[in-house]
Design goal:
Blueprint lengths: L3 H22 L5 H11 L4 H33 L6 H38 L5 H30 L4
Helix pairs in contact: 1-3, 3-4, 4-5
């Protein structure tokens, strides 16, 4: 039998889990709005913007994504939900996103910052190399945002329950 204290603790962990997802990934939905505008209106600030993205990844996305992972594991374990697709799908997505953060986004954001700094110091325009890398990061970023939305839908709607 589940006691009131267990339910209260479980509910607190659910809240921490949801807050962690919002904190970790919420800002990433702003990038497609801000980055093209920055490129057109304030290209001189792009090196700083990409350094900021890398810092957000290191100090916001990774820690809060990890907290979401740990609280999600607790929640699924406590209620024996690891056999449910609506738990497994977001779990796989979260692990994939955390892996992309370290293996893909961090090195590419650092590279974009270096390209922007180099290009603007050399002639004031962003190189084809910068634009090609920014395009790839933008595409993977958009796909990552779609995965976040799929994970949220899966957790809320439980389509395979």
């Amino acid at each position: 039998m589940i006691s009131a204290a267990t339910i209260l603790f479980y509910d607190v962990v659910v809240a921490v889990h949801v807050m962690s997802i919002v904190i970790a990934f919420g800002v990433t939905f702003v990038y497609p709005v801000i980055l093209p505008w920055m490129m057109n209106v304030h290209p001189e600030a792009l090196a700083t913007v990409h350094e900021m993205q890398e810092r957000i990844g290191r100090f916001v996305i990774m820690p809060f994504g990890t907290l979401a992972l740990l609280t999600g594991i607790y929640l699924a374990s406590d209620r024996d939900l690891f056999g449910e697709a609506w738990v497994i799908i977001p779990l796989v997505i979260l692990v994939l996103l955390l892996g992309l953060g370290g293996a893909f986004f961090t090195p590419r954001e650092k590279a974009l910052a270096a390209f922007a700094e180099r290009d603007l110091a050399a002639g004031g325009t962003l190189s084809d190399e910068y634009h090609a890398n920014a395009k790839v990061v933008g595409i993977v970023g958009a796909l990552s945002s779609l995965l976040v939305l799929i994970a949220i839908f899966s957790m809320v709607a439980k389509p395979f329950a």
